[in-house]
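FAQ

Q: What does a record look like?
A: Structure on top, sequence underneath. For example:
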């Protein structure tokens, strides 16, 4: 049973920031190189899910990890408040049409999990509804794996409460970050304990492993995400297809 309060939000003390950043540079270049084979191979689909509290670095992790990957291969989607059309369907309707096809990489910056996180925290759905949605998510992800050979990597960016306050304050204090400011982020931060409970429940009931990524330090967060993505792609045994000359 995972308890988020027992998991560090910072890198181990013995790690050297300069060395780790250098290693991250190597990892992301390898991801870029391997992505070209991945696209040509066309036997796999890769879905990256980033979840975490506001300012945990979902955008930043995406930019760094895939900066050497062609936009023809990777793209990102963010799931916000459902539209009227989306609300008239089941909660996974808007998600299913955006999952990656073979040879493509899709990044979900927030995802289908919002429907068992924010909706639960604000009590827009009851606990029975939450349980059924979690079951539906597990079945949905199993379908993607079984029916389309989709690998799903789920990252929870584990930010401390103090670091979040610091990052939200930067959006007020730094001109270049003013555009990120949203009064509602501060209101959501007041519900921290409720969100931690909801995240723990989701993580512990998921059939696919969640990677808990310490997110207080960007350089360590980026390193861990890139390392896991590269290792996953290397384990796919990717190869360029050979032309049949017959």
């Amino acid at each position: 049973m995972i308890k988020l309060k027992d998991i560090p939000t910072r890198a181990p003390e013995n790690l050297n920031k300069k060395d780790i950043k250098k290693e991250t540079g190597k990892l992301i270049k390898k991801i870029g190189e391997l992505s070209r084979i991945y696209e040509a191979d066309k036997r796999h689909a890769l879905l990256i899910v980033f979840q975490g509290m506001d300012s945990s670095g979902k955008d930043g992790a995406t930019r760094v990890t895939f900066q050497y990957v062609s936009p023809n291969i990777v793209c990102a989607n963010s799931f916000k408040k459902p539209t009227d059309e989306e609300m008239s369907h089941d909660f996974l309707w808007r998600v299913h049409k955006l999952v990656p096809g073979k040879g493509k990489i899709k990044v979900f910056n927030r995802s289908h999990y919002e429907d068992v996180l924010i909706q639960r925290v604000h009590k827009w759905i009851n606990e029975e509804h939450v349980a059924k949605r979690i079951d539906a998510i597990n079945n949905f992800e199993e379908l993607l794996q079984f029916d389309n050979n989709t690998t799903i990597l789920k990252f929870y960016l584990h930010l401390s409460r103090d670091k979040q306050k610091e990052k939200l304050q930067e959006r007020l204090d730094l001109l270049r970050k003013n555009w990120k400011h949203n009064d509602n982020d501060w209101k959501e931060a007041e519900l921290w304990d409720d969100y931690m409970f909801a995240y723990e429940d989701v993580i512990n009931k998921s059939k696919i492993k969640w990677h808990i990524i310490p997110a207080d330090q960007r350089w360590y967060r980026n390193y861990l995400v890139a390392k896991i993505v590269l290792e996953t792609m290397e384990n796919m045994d990717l190869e360029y297809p050979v032309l049949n000359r017959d």
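Q: Is there anything notable about this one?
A: The chain has a mean pLDDT of 95.
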